[in-house]
Design a protein that fits this description.
Oligomer: single chain
Number of strands: 47
Number of helices: 5
Strand content: over 45%
Structural class: mainly beta
Largest sheet: 22 strands, antiparallel, barrel
Radius of gyration: 29 Å
Length: 806
């Protein structure tokens, strides 16, 4: 991005922010939630004396309390107050005529008169919600918003600027997502899959290996299993998913693309679980409190068995996957909690040799084997107006395919602090440290001899450290500014081949400024602006299947240049009637030092094609590792949505964009041609349309239509691409997804459902740039071999199953 453009954009944002804050008038204060029904809190048995507990409650738009956190108070009073508050009902807070979720404080005072109880005030008498004392002699509690005027925080506006959030409830109803919050990311504007049905995405032009994936702040290498693309974390654990398509808050670093961050549910106060059984996999989750609610334990997992379905199509493919999650928490005090979260996943894909040799066909060649495991030990401390988390994470990763496998043993320490300084200022900060020890294993299994670029072997040891901070400033009732910065140092070292030679060490510092601005032009119209710079280590490809599926972040290619992304976006958010929200965004991204592992450069990875005979097929290869490229992307996004949990729900997202790269092409003379061309997976138009309807009697039906234009390609002279490069487009693609659900009640609070769901029920095929289909003969005079783009599909995913919640 040109420096003059950045300066001009930042200056324009600051001018608009200042002028709007000067002209803004105070918005009407939202009305607070009002309790309904009983708010009795029984006096804890065996307790002595008076006590007071302060709770922070999250009251949803339907009046239920979704969260109750103890801010002040001692046991056993704190747990008794918290458990009771979760059963309360409210008239929700309102902004004008619109119900909104809100976070409020409630003070519960416990009193016990040691004298003879009064018959006029029996235990459990209803207390008043205004400040006051309980009736004399009654072992009850009184509740009050506070002694000071009530302060209401509207939860819906607390999300970060530029962030889009998917709740678990919405995702359950999205056709083609199979109830998985991570899988639903595909429906957002700015997101383009490599191939329909394959859950690896370009995000605003950034390739899949440049996206960062997090679960509760823990970095993981991939989010999805092979097969139907289920996420590697059971969906019942996920409370919501935060999606940052470009510039993310300062707490996220090490990624030059989008950020997808899943947040798990708070520990439950009552026993619950869920289970599902489908054609291709089965999963379950069970969580229960213990020790009178002081501790909680959770266990979940999923096992995939797509083999029988695949064998009906082809016996040459073997595929399987599983994952697990376990979590335990213990509340030390009303403000302090410790927890242990363990999770991991496994994927396996193998095919038989295509050589035609009967003996070779007996052996399976591992195309993709992936394992990762994480153990996160965390300590959480809740302050009066803030929170702190200190966590230590151990990890093990293994990715590869015959003949190359890479493993990584890691340890990471992170500190996160958030504190409200005043009604207008909130600060967030923290620090991170990470250690990665890579190892490489080569096997004799697979086609050809194991070849590893010298830039990747011997494998490195990496150290990274950083600090981040940002300030959330409510400059006026209509203006919010978030300014932050992230500073990091990446260090990588590895042993040289000569034993007497010292280790080679590379150190690369990075400074990532971030700026976010939100201006509420009217109560229903907001202007959103984001600017930021991000850095990322180069990535390494291993294995035999398409490169984006097997990238190892932090594994250097041998050059010191970090991948750098400068990103900006400007947009408007409009709240329309009937809870419909319209978002219109323009974006621009500029990359340098990019290692786009999905690019086909018609040159081999080591830059040595060897002798080529006329007619010899020359498939596309990865861009040379010593030639990081530049690129940029720009476009306009439209998102129109109504919550998918409504009786009539809808979603419409559209992206008009262009992404370009520098790419290397082999010429007829055997040399290389460097050209700036549309990115390998650039799609000009991407459209998602979703419609869902509650048919009544617990029947619900929904459908989804996906359309995008084709990827670019070059005309070929035999096997050699001809200029102008990438001047032509593959055919457009569309598919239809479908979901039908019938649900029955199960007990007082549970349910059981029969679900029929299908992705690509139209059985559409797709022409892709992932490879070439080459065949033909050769003659000394004419190169007769002809190549064309590969056709994939139809990649269709049927799902019939039963799910239960209890």
């Amino acid at each position: 991005m040109p420096i003059s453009f950045v300066r001009a954009s930042i200056l324009l944002a600051l001018i608009l922010t200042w002028s709007t804050s000067m002209l803004a008038q105070t918005l009407p204060a939202p009305s607070p939630p009002v309790p309904q029904g009983s708010t009795d809190v029984p006096y804890p048995p065996g307790a002595v004396g008076d006590a007071a507990v302060v709770l922070e409650l999250v009251v949803e738009t339907d009046g239920s309390v979704s969260s109750a956190v103890v801010v002040e108070g001692n046991e056993p009073f704190a747990e008794r107050a918290r458990s009771a508050a979760l059963t309360w009902r409210f008239v929700p807070a309102q902004r004008g005529d619109t119900p909104v979720a809100a976070r409020v404080r409630a003070r519960i005072a416990f009193h016990r008169d040691e004298q003879e109880p009064s018959s006029a005030s029996p235990p459990g008498a209803k207390p008043s919600l205004a400040p006051g004392a309980a009736p004399s002699g009654s072992p009850t509690a009184t509740t009050a918003a506070s002694e000071a005027p009530l302060e209401v925080t509207i939860v819906g506006t607390r999300r970060d600027i530029g962030q889009t959030t998917l709740s678990a409830g919405d995702v359950r109803e999205m056709p083609g997502a199979f109830g998985d919050a991570f899988r639903a990311i595909e429906a957002f504007p700015g997101v383009t899959p490599l191939v329909s049905g394959m859950p690896y995405f370009y995000v605003r032009g950034a390739p899949p290996n440049n996206s960062g994936y997090y679960v509760d702040g823990v970095r993981i290498p991939l989010l999805f299993h092979l097969g139907i693309g289920q996420s590697v974390v059971h969906p019942g654990m996920i409370d919501h998913v935060d999606f940052f398509p470009s510039t993310a808050p300062a707490r996220y670093g090490g990624s030059a693309g989008g950020i997808i961050a899943g947040q798990t549910r708070e520990p439950a106060t009552a026993r619950h679980g869920e289970a599902n059984l489908r054609l291709v996999d089965t999963g379950a989750l069970l969580e229960s409190p213990f020790a009178d609610g002081q501790g909680t334990a959770l266990i979940a997992g999923r096992y995939g068995y797509p083999g029988p379905i695949l064998n009906a199509v082809s016996s040459d493919i073997h595929l399987g996957y599983w994952d697990y999650q376990a979590r335990a928490t213990w509340q030390l005090t009303g403000r302090d909690t410790i927890g242990l979260f363990a999770f991991g996943s496994h994927d396996y894909l193998a095919t038989r040799s295509p050589s035609g040799d009967p003996e070779a066909a007996k052996e399976l060649i591992e195309q993709f084997v992936s394992d990762f495991h994480r153990l996160d030990l965390r300590y959480d401390h809740r302050m009066v107006d803030g929170r702190m988390r200190l966590a230590l994470t151990g990890g093990y990763d293994s990715q590869g395919g015959a003949p190359t496998y890479v493993t990584n043993t890691s340890a990471a320490l992170r500190l996160e602090i958030e504190q409200k300084l005043s009604a207008a200022v909130r600060v967030r900060g923290g620090a991170t440290g990470r250690f990665d020890k890579y190892r490489m294993r080569l096997t004799a299994v697979g086609p050809g001899e194991p070849v590893v670029p010298t830039s990747a072997n011997p494998p490195p040891t990496n150290l990274g450290a950083g600090a981040h901070a940002d300030v959330v400033w409510r400059a006026s009732p209509r203006v919010e500014i978030v300014s932050g910065v992230r500073a990091e140092v990446f260090t990588s070292s590895r042993a040289n081949e000569a034993p007497s030679t010292a280790r080679t060490r590379t150190t690369a510092p990075a400074l990532d400024p971030r700026l976010f601005v939100r201006v509420d032009i009217t109560p229903r119209v907001a202007w959103l602006s984001t600017f930021g710079v991000s850095h990322q280590y180069p990535s390494l490809r291993v294995g035999n299947i398409p490169a984006p599926l097997l990238s190892v972040p932090g594994f250097p290619f041998g050059h010191e240049q970090l991948q750098t992304a400068a990103q900006a976006s400007q947009g408007f958010e409009v709240a329309l009637p009937t809870e419909i929200v319209l978002t219109l965004t323009g974006f621009y991204s500029r990359w340098t030092g990019l290692t786009d592992l999905s690019a086909s450069c018609f040159q081999d990875e080591l830059g040595d094609m060897g002798p080529r005979t006329p007619g010899q097929p020359v498939p596309p290869y990865l861009c040379p590792s010593n030639h990081p490229v530049q690129g940029h992307a720009y476009g306009v996004e439209v998102l129109l949505r109504r919550p998918l949990s409504k009786r009539l729900s809808g979603w419409l997202s559209y992206t008009l964009s262009r992404a370009t790269r520098q790419a290397y092409f082999i010429t007829r003379s055997g040399g290389d041609a460097l050209a700036t061309v549309p990115s390998e997976f650039d799609r000009t138009h991407v459209l998602n349309a979703i419609l869902g309807y509650d048919l009544g009697r617990r029947w619900r039906m929904g459908g989804r239509f996906l359309f995008y234009t084709g990827t670019p390609y070059s005309l070929l002279d035999g096997t050699v691409p001809l200029p102008p490069y990438h001047a032509y487009r593959n055919p457009a693609f569309f598919r239809v997804d479908f979901r039908l659900e019938k649900r029955w009640p199960l007990g007082d609070t549970g349910s059981i459902a029969f679900v029929v769901e299908g992705q690509n029920v139209t059985l559409s095929k797709e022409v892709s740039s992932l490879g070439l289909d080459c065949k033909g003969t050769a003659s000394p005079e004419v190169q007769a071999t002809q190549c064309k783009q590969s056709t994939f599909g139809p990649l269709t995913i049927p799902s019939v199953g039963v799910e239960a919640f209890f």
